[in-house]
Specification:
By secondary structure, the protein is mainly alpha-helical. The protein contains 14 helices and 4 strands. Strand 2 and strand 3 form a beta hairpin. Helix 3 packs across helix 9, helix 3 packs antiparallel against helix 11 and helix 3 packs across helix 12. The model has no long low-confidence stretch (mean pLDDT 87).
Length: 326
């Protein structure tokens, strides 16, 4: 009898540990089950592919955000950079002014510079990344609106939409899904298998110890924010291709959704701990939420309210996980 009493608490403890450790997967399964019961069309293969397609540009930015948040930073400007990418590319190729490849290279360099500027001001000015990117979020959005006077710029060049937006591999898999999975594989390798990824985790875990160990913290941070600009570039191209135009207000919720996906995936807000697989799962949760609530007819304000509640739940589980580790 006494042994059974002892076994029960141990079983509950083991169950809670597993629940907290695999919280991202648990939340995803629960969400998909609920939406499937409420709207059976949710699990239709066409709808599942639509979820993956709409997740693609969020995932791309989320992968870059994983590096930033692991460092202990934040980048609120990614959605605005994506908008600048779309409108700048659209303006460069409009009317055959410039060939697509040179235009892409110019926009790539521009997005890297915008990301680098975030890191430079934060590192050299010793300003919190949250404040810097909050400011540049508005500056870059203002730039996109100024360039276009608030109007969309059509993109009518051949194959652009097929390559980055509405094309399908083998007539089935949307090309944005392929792009995002390739970026995921590269990001996972850089994050887990290279010195740069190790430096990112070390700095986020203990910046002073990293400095003593000889890691050039400023260079790593500048590189991470420049990379974030590249991720926003790819995401901006996908968004522009999906819309067949450069939209100055594109990506308004992109930073929020990407940060939410990263947090839901288990990356610690204070830095030092992150996971690319978790970010993939977290972005799937956000995409499933968006799709499922749209199928249920939920209005925008209800959608962001529910996403906020899910994020709070994930953070509470993260804190519980850390408490059990201690």
């Amino acid at each position: 009898m006494h042994a059974n009493v002892e076994t029960a608490p141990k079983s509950r403890t083991t169950f809670m540990k597993l629940l907290i450790r695999y919280r991202t997967l648990v939340i995803l399964i629960v969400l998909m089950t609920v939406f499937s019961l409420l709207r059976p069309v949710f699990i239709d293969p066409k709808n599942l592919l639509a979820i993956l397609k709409n997740m693609s540009y969020v995932l791309v930015v989320g992968l870059g955000m994983t590096f930033i948040i692991t460092l202990g930073g934040l980048d609120l400007s990614v959605g605005s950079i994506a908008a600048v990418v779309g409108v700048t590319f659209a303006m460069l190729v409009r009317g055959g002014t410039m060939a697509p490849i040179p235009a892409l290279l110019i926009v790539l360099v521009l997005s890297m510079l915008l990301g680098f500027f975030n890191g430079f001001v934060s590192v050299k000015g010793k300003i919190e990344p949250f404040l810097v990117t909050l400011a540049t979020m508005n500056i870059y959005r203002g730039l996109a609106l100024t360039l276009t006077k608030g109007k969309p710029v059509p993109i009518v060049i051949p194959h652009f939409a097929d390559i980055f937006g509405n094309g399908r591999l083998f007539g089935v898999i949307p090309t944005p899904v392929i792009i995002s999975l390739v970026i995921f594989a590269i990001s996972w390798f850089v994050y887990t298998q290279t010195k740069f990824g190790f430096f990112v985790r070390s700095i986020g875990g203990n910046q002073e110890a990293s400095r003593v160990a000889g890691i050039e913290i400023s260079k790593v941070k500048l590189a991470a924010y420049t990379m974030s600009g590249v991720y926003a570039f790819i995401s901006g191209l996908i968004l522009a291709a999906l819309m067949n135009s450069g939209l100055p207000d594109a990506g308004r919720d992109l930073a929020l959704d990407a940060i939410s996906g990263v947090i839901l995936g288990g990356t610690a807000l204070l830095g030092g701990v992150g996971t690319m697989w978790g970010t993939l799962g977290g972005c799937l949760i956000i995409a499933s939420l968006n799709n499922g609530m749209s199928l249920l007819g939920a209005q925008y304000h209800v959608q962001i309210l529910v996403k906020g509640l899910v994020i709070i739940f994930a953070v509470l589980m993260d804190n519980a996980f850390k408490s059990r580790q201690r």
